[in-house]
Amino acid sequence: MLLKDVIQRNNIRNPELLKLILVYLMDNVGQIFSGKNISNYLKNQERKVGIETIYKYIEALIEGMVIYPAKRYDIKGKRIMKRLEKYYLADLGLRYNVLGYRKNDISQLLENIVYLELLRRGYKVYVGKETKREIDFIGIKRNEKIYIQVTYILSNEKVINREYRPLKEIKDNFPKLVISLDKTPIGVQEGIQWMNIIDFILNEDNHKETLYT
Asked: What are the pLDDT digits (tens) for 57-73?
């Protein structure tokens, strides 16, 4: 029904191509997007499609609120970058219906959940770029800003360093947060707080008070 509405509103001439693009985005939710990569994917499906057409169909999916974009934000240069964005789904149930459950995708799905929660709280959400490192999310709302890393489990020191290090390199005083499914509190490192994802979603007011004190 969602795709039917998108097709009618945008006079889509190739519904099957729209479905293929959406399945690709579902399969690569939270991954850096490249028009060239999806073009190569479609070639493997024996479909030769121009990159501009691909972006036109993606815009139709955005307008239909099937997917949401997260553009890349250069933290040092304080500017929004034009390409290499990410896309997130408005409803992960649709992905499950099409692709089924895949344990290896948990981190991507957690990112999608946090992205939607930040949107719900009124933030404009970007993917952060700090020199050669990436911050999963930068949420900006009026004079507020929050930096967030999302991961499945902080299973060892190597993973902890991987998630905390990009945040440690940001030199401003806005809140910085690592979110995971861990149940044992990780504690605070150099002002960077850890939070269980369920607590992050369920206790917005308490967490905001904690993060901004």
From this structure: 999 999 999 999 998 87
Taking a C-beta distance cutoff of 8 angstroms, is the pair 121, 140 a contact? no
In this prediction, residue 171 has a pLDDT band, given cuts at 50, 70 and 90, of confident
pLDDT tens digits, one per residue of 75-121: 665 656 566 789 999 999 989 988 888 888 899 999 999 999 999 99
Q: Which two tokens stand for residue 92?
A: 């992960």
Rounded to 10 deg, the angle between the 92-99 and 15-27 helix axes is: 100
Q: Can you tell me the distance from the alpha carbon of 6 to that of 72, in angstroms, rounded to the nearest whole number? A: 26
Chain centroid to CA 135: 10
Q: What is the per-residue DSSP string for 34-85?
A: -HHHHHHHHHHTT----HHHHHHHHHHHHHTTSEEEE-EEETTTTEE-SSS-
3-state secondary structure of 112: helix
CA nearest 119: which of 100, 95, 91? 91
The model's confidence at residue 136, banded by pLDDT at 50, 70 and 90, is very high
Distance of CA 155 to the CA centre of its chain: 22
The DSSP line for 195-209 is EEHHHHHH-HHHHHH
Taking CA atoms, 203 is separated from 77, 87, 145, 173, in Å, by 33, 26, 18, 22
Task: Write out the two tokens for 115.
Answer: 């992205």
Q: Please identify which residue in the block is written with the tokens 């490249």.
A: 34
